[in-house]
């Protein structure tokens, strides 16, 4: 990675404004050799000769008293998620050994619905799926935690003392190649996922957005 700044001449060729008072970053940049063992290119900046002219001196002085607005620090996911609810979702991806897929499905069918029905656990099982395209021999589970992150932590702490669940995890571990989890928030413009009578086919999409574009993407949807 290299660090550099745009010179005054380059700004003019690109149609940008010339140097302004206080705009040190727009001064011509001269690259120095990178330090040994570093991937950064050191940048030394020089001010234009007329930078401290009388016309610029007053504006430079006034710029010291310009009110600066702090950038918003809210996470885009918080701004786009629902305000009237505090649900948190966890989606689990389990890559199962091909010879154990049927046994895995039977095991999860016997244990996971019990957690869903137990009122002592603030979670509900929204759905279980096996993949058809993409990753093969994969199981997907979607959980909803009513109460956000505190509900998730409450559930995790209680499961540590649930002997049946611990035995389930031990038996399940012998059937898996790998597993991963994701925590998700709801977009405000979509309804909550509800159980449906099956069999059904669902499409699961993942969008990788450019940093800072999540609000624009959500508004387009």
From TrEMBL:
Q: What is the source species? A: Homo sapiens (Human)
Task: Write down the PANTHER family for this protein, in alphabetical order.
Answer: NIPSNAP-RELATED, PROTEIN NIPSNAP HOMOLOG 1
Upper lineage: Eukaryota, Metazoa, Chordata, Craniata, Vertebrata
Which domain of life does this protein belong to?
Eukaryota
Q: What is this protein called?
A: Nipsnap homolog 1
